Amino acid sequence: MTYLVEQLKQTIDNDNYDTAINIIGGLKDLNVIYKAFDSYFNESDTLHDLIHKRNEFNIRTEKSRKRIESAVVKTFLQFKNEDHRDLIQGVCNEFIPQQDKALLMIWQFALNNRLFREITKDVFMKIYYSGRLTITKNDIVSYLKELLLQKQSLNLNWSEITIDTLSTKYLNIMTKLGVLNTGRIKTFKNIHPSTEAQVLFIYFLKLKEPENYNILTNEFLSIGFIHPDDLQERIKKLALKGFFNMNFNGIKLNVELTHSHKGVCYDLYN
What is the mean pLDDT of the chain? Predict the structure, then answer.
């Protein structure tokens, strides 16, 4: 683990708003994030070597590489606890399908970055579930401007250019992760998470709010790509796999995990 990783782990508060979206959205290929996971958990490799020595992020200048390293640490290599670390380490294996990897990156980014989480929850998923076919930069620009008005006490002071860039880069991220189609007009892909990915999402829900057994009130719930109309029946079917227990009393849908975060990954993908 590099000094930068350790230093950032001590100072980062993922309840703050930041503009890491702009840096991550500028990467040409987000699959390199999985290489970052591998390097982080590999005793014979480091994130620093991956970015600075081998330049697998394909970044020209040393200054830009440092900025990328900092953003990757802040958005993907932060862990709430050992369960969180175990979950991410467990999904770093060759058997995970590409779409599952993409969804896991969305969930990890959202867990660690407040702005990405709130745009995804309050803009992207609301439009996706509404049945509308497209999402535009203006949808996000409008949301960010309203956010600035509501959060004036935080003194975010984002310029028009910053807001415009955040909106563009957010759409770039979601396109590169395969949930939007490429092209000038951004249309939604119809995402059907695998059973394995949906089970892992339940474990992400518990990471977000470990003391909250009722997942219906979990802030993270809407970003699972499980349509609200299908949620109860889908969770019931997933519970039959034995990875968690559920109980629904008509108001609360309580979920209790039955596997460790490390064990669930092994059992799902091996």
Answer: 91
Q: Count of residues for the chain?
A: 270
Within 8 A by CB and 6+ apart from 218, the residues are 205, 208, 209, 212
What residue has token string 């059992």?
267
- What confidence tens digit (pLDDT) does each residue in 112-156 have? 999 999 999 999 999 999 999 999 999 999 999 999 999 988 889
Instruction: Report pTM.
Output: 0.92
Q: What is the pLDDT of residue 243?
A: 95
DSSP for 168-203 reads: HHHHHHHHHTTSB-SSSSEEB------HHHHHHHHH
Residue 256 pairs in a beta bridge with 245
Give the span between the Cα atoms of 111 and 124, in whole angstroms.
16
CA of residue 14 relative to chain centroid, distance: 13
Amino acid at the residue 152: Q
Per the CB < 8 A criterion, the answer to whether 190 and 227 are in contact is: no
